[in-house]
Protein 1
Amino acid sequence: MFQLLKKQYGRYTLDIVSRITGTPKDKLEEIYKLYASTGRPDKAGVELYAMGWTQHTTGTQTVRAMAIIQLLLGNIGIAGGGIAAMRGESNVQGSTDHGLLFHIWPGYLGAPTASMKTLKDFNEKRTPQTKEEKSLNWWKNFPKYSASFLRAMYGTNVSLEEAYQLMPKLDDGANYSWLMIFDQMYKGKFTGFFAWGMNPACSGAHSNKVRQALTKLDWLVNVNLFDNETGSFWRGPGMDPTKIKTEVFLLPCASSIEKEGSIANSGRWQQWRYKAIDPPGEAKPDGDIMSELFFRVKELYEKEGGPHKEAITKLTWPYGKKTLTGHFHYDPRMVAAEINGYFLEDKKVENPFKKGEFREFKKGDLVPAFAWLQDDGSTSSGCWIYCGSVSEKGILAMRRINKDASGIGLYSEWAWCWPVNRRILYNGASVDLKGEPWNKKTPVIIWNGEKWIGDVPDGVGDPGSGRPPFIMKPDGVASLFGPGLADGPFPEHYEPLECPVDKNILSPQKHNPVIKRFDKAGVGSDLDAFASVDACDPRFPFVCSTYRVSEHWQTGVLTRWCPWLAEMQPGMFCEISIELAREKGISNGDKVVVKSARGEVEATAIVTPRLKPLNIDGKIIHQVGIPWHFGWITSKNRKYYPGDKKPEIFTEGDAANLLTPFIGDPNTMIPESKAFMVNVIKK
Ligand SMILES: Nc1nc2c(c(=O)[nH]1)N[C@H]1C(S)=C(S)[C@@H](COP(=O)(O)OP(=O)(O)OC[C@H]3O[C@@H](n4cnc5c(=O)[nH]c(N)nc54)[C@H](O)[C@@H]3O)O[C@H]1N2
Ligand SMILES: Nc1nc2c(c(=O)[nH]1)N[C@H]1C(S)=C(S)[C@@H](COP(=O)(O)OP(=O)(O)OC[C@H]3O[C@@H](n4cnc5c(=O)[nH]c(N)nc54)[C@H](O)[C@@H]3O)O[C@H]1N2
Ligand SMILES: [Mo]
């Protein structure tokens, strides 16, 4: 594999990389040397990444390329090492842990597809095998986690097999990600839609398409603190309310400080948050809204019947109760315990870590850690990786012990970290085969002659056991070669779908050949609203990228209403270089229109040395940048109806996503919001 790797990347000479990126050769070399200098036992290098890497049609390959570099440098599992995905919102980690994505159940259990007819088929398909005797192959435990999850869903009301039959299945090969959902909605395949804590009319790539898609719905439920461009899409720019059939409901919700629950951060720390104040008016915590919906839908199914009704009527929902006022309150502490999991019967279980030693559990006991979960239906766990997060000591996410015995910042008694409170994943790679830390000054784990001390050890057996440390990989070793993705197995350089160059000097393929596209290729005579420009099109000569500013949050629904923030960032701007400004006769503060193949937005020009023209293979290429926090609802020039709230300070400009292409990375389906082609025209 290493020889293949050398062959693949031998082509990436300094000269070629410099021609492609526009970075001078000496700068490239300086950066390579500096970073490669971390490949020593007494040094560490970490890669923090966020949207600059991911929002591309090559995002997955970029992250993989860096993972390969970190492996080669020995920067995995050590203090100050790793590949760290910075999560954007406070609970992005928690939501993916708990099954937000369509293709996984909670705890990253691959979801079943229609062709997996029985629980046995499902478990067989999803449980990896290995011939490596010393490999732990942790995913061999998959059937324990799937059984425990099914029990968390349906309790003991039904058998495990029946529970499996009640769970929804994905159509084989189908994809239900964001772009897919809005494409299907645009094609009229949806009846209704819950926009739950999101603002797709501004955050979704190609917002014109998203806004049109919303007109095809019969109903839309907006669960939010405020009205936003999504809930009010029907009276937004270019819409004729008399022609739109969609009925919109706003369910007012409590904000993060008005309800209790937990969040999980980028470091996998689950931290408890307490309610500070009551929500105003009729607003309710999201959990209560969901709970009430559940009971109402269940009642309807019980009264009226319907296809597959048991999928709803047989669910266990022990944490919601009807109060005297008729409101279904749900208790997040009970949910936390359900996520941890229980023994559902009295049972004597062999200690998974000590053969021949047994422990007796009583029905209702909390399962102490996921190694104790069973595949026979005798345990439940809503998310196996969180098993161990609630114990007789309480909800460990509530811990606030501000002590760091490790000296390297693990703070092991602050909150709780999945899995099993281990703070650094793959820490077995921080020691050699004899158990000696590679770096004796910053050890993560140490063998004291009898046991490991420091962080909770990951994957390592006792020194001398020869167990390979990457226990989540079937063979126990990390992979340089990455089969199983839509692209690869080795990362390769491709240009974004919309780009300013004629060819990729490394390969005859200009773009990632497996980009997920929904659009028609090329543009027609007028600006085809749903197209991308995949050849250099003189109408859109500049590269555009979208990004954030400190003063606003996301689509701005939480910040555009704050007068002090609106005052600091009062509207859409477009950053352009001094050179481009000169070329186009644009001055700082001028009004401009930024246009792509899909739409246009008005902006104020900011002429800045922050952006510099790039020299790409001898050709001067300009790049411009725009923030994506704005939307029409807080603007001065929109129509305000009686009863509409007006912001104290207006912000001008509409969504940056009116410009972005509706295309996705072939693995993650994230849209290419960081690189597409536009023109900038002085008004
Ligand atoms: N104030 C504020 N803070 C926020 C948010 C907010 O809206 N406002 N949003 C939160 C959320 S949800 C998220 S996901 C995070 C996002 O955090 P970031 O990903 O840091 O945010 P963006 O501003 O979208 O950033 C992208 C950066 O990527 C760079 N970039 C663009 N293309 C490339 C490329 O090809 N390679 C590299 N290496 N860099 C590139 C751009 O120059 C830009 O500086 O921020 C979170 N924090
Ligand atoms: N062009 C471009 N587009 C992007 C990005 C980019 O960099 N460039 N970044 C992308 C990224 S990283 C992200 S994360 C997405 C975000 O996309 P969205 O999630 O659609 O956007 P937000 O503005 O974060 O929407 C959150 C909504 O939730 C509401 N809200 C706040 N608290 C609560 C609560 O407790 N309960 C409920 N029910 N609602 C609440 C807010 O008022 C707001 O309307 O946008 C993506 N879109
Ligand atoms: Mo994000």
Note: Residues 94-170+336-397 form one domain.
Protein 2
Amino acid sequence: MFLRYLSVRALLLLLGICLIGPRGLASAAETKEPKKIAVIGGGIGGSAAAYFLRQEFGASVKIDVFEAGTVGGRTATENVKGQDYEIGAAVIHPLNLHLKHFVETLGLSPRAEVKNKMAIFNGKELTFEESDWFIVNFIRMLWRYGFNSYRKFGWVEGILGKFMSVYQYQKFGYAFSSVEQLLRSVDAERFLNQTLEEAMRADGFSQAFINDIVTPNTRTNFGLNAALNAFVGVVSLADGTSGLWSVEGGNKRMSAGLLQLCKAEIIQGRVTGITLKTSKSASQYEVNYSVDSGPSRSLYDIVIIATPLHKGLSDISFSGFSPPIPSHFSGDFQQIVNTLVLGRLNMSYLGTDQRAADFLVSDILTTDNKALPFNSLATVAPVKIPQGYAHPPASANKVWKMFSAQPLSEEQLGEMFESQEGVWVKRWLAYPSYTPPNHRTPPFILHDHLYYVNAIEWAASCMEMSALSARNAALLAYNRWHGHAHKIDQEDLETRLRTEL
Ligand SMILES: Cc1cc2nc3c(=O)[nH]c(=O)nc-3n(C[C@H](O)[C@H](O)[C@H](O)COP(=O)(O)OP(=O)(O)OC[C@H]3O[C@@H](n4cnc5c(N)ncnc54)[C@H](O)[C@@H]3O)c2cc1C
Ligand SMILES: *[C@@H]1O[C@H](CO)[C@@H](O)[C@H](O)[C@H]1NC(C)=O
Ligand SMILES: *[C@@H]1O[C@H](CO)[C@@H](O)[C@H](O)[C@H]1NC(C)=O
Ligand SMILES: *[C@@H]1O[C@H](CO)[C@@H](O)[C@H](O)[C@H]1NC(C)=O
């Protein structure tokens, strides 16, 4: 499917048709271009939105990006004894095409690959430990779960494979007004009102496999068991594949790079309010914000909100109109505490009698055990490492990273580690507390020319989804500004793209 489109594109290139581009037929002279666009939030979503807006609207529009905290948002690093470690979003999937494109365009590099080894802990002992030998893993999994684990890869790949079409739709300038519409275009909408557990059970996976293997993945990635929506569940399982990567020097470099490349002005300040101002000739938004020197405000033709509007996250008030969030789309973001410990692990805590010097497991996932104080425990490498770097064994004094719902107490850490040289803690309101079935997702369009990138997080929260939603917001803003209704919410795009050509 993908290949077919690629070859069609190659053909178009040969014919020179691509020069017209997806939006080439619109005569820009007919409509007035917007003069000023505001993007609220300088995380990967906001910075990608600024970049894609520049692509759509061209060089002359002024793009202001408001950032109350630090550019990068939930991608952030912490310095531990002179080395930086990811303390927010860490891993990127090989099929995350927008992020891949950013890294290439910005001249950044992926960090050298580190070999990881996974184990599963049930609170008493390690119930599974990956072997270095593929064949050993194969036989162990086969013995315990039949073909479940091998089918899992096919199942996840089948869903992701269909999902990949969305990149083609975006390339051709198509946008969607809601998360549901976007997912419907790639046959994934049904995963929003099903739990991962239901979807997998319906497709013949065993409950044992879901409890023992699937849940540890969703706990690590989204702090919940397999009762989350099936779409975010698939995103979580895709994380269990090989080839995961991150950006050398830190994932946050993507945001900083994109903002610089697209010549957005970064306004270091907190947006407090957005007011719709309507005159005879036009509607604009007045954005109120506070900077070091005090409160200020400015008018914009288009506003893109690239931060969650749910409780405790952004505190923006609206006047002149009332967007439906969060009133009509209730829900909470869950707290995830990211704790880094430089220290030596207590091997007996894991209920194993292996010697620490031989213990090379890097990622310890957990089953759904309420008594466990953490969701996952992993040894992590800094954001910059030399080629051929390998994780040291557990006997070394090294950096471990834990995700937990609550901060870990000194007592808990004392039991887990034989020695500790330092502890670094970051509390996040990390991602939605996914509660299926069918939690309706907020709309991408909050009002005319006011768009909401973070609606996508209610389907799944990850860096690539933010980037994908940012591209959608830019296309939506462009198509609606120019009245291109035929580029929005089109059904059956796959056949249409085939026959249009
Ligand atoms: C612990 C953790 C681990 C994760 N692991 C992964 C992972 O491995 N892989 C992955 O892909 N994803 C991961 N994620 C998810 C990922 O971090 C997010 O989906 C993504 O970074 C969201 O980006 P964003 O730009 O949409 O939002 P944010 O990064 O939250 O950006 C919003 C920005 O807006 C700013 N802001 C808020 N309010 C205002 C205001 N009123 N005025 C001005 N600015 C404001 C904030 O300061 C922030 O910088 C993880 C998240 C967490 C918390
Ligand atoms: C789930 O979504 C599908 C597809 O949109 C729909 O047909 C079905 O009725 C929904 N089920 C529930 C329980 O909402
Ligand atoms: C924006 O600022 C102006 C001037 O300070 C104020 O009158 C107005 O109420 C503010 N609007 C919002 C939505 O906060
Ligand atoms: C190591 O873990 C075991 C098992 O949880 C515990 O009994 C022991 O006290 C721990 N060691 C230290 C130094 O806390």
Note: Residues 189-190, 193, 437-438 surround 2-acetamido-2-deoxy-beta-D-glucopyranose (ligand 2) (CB under 6 Å).
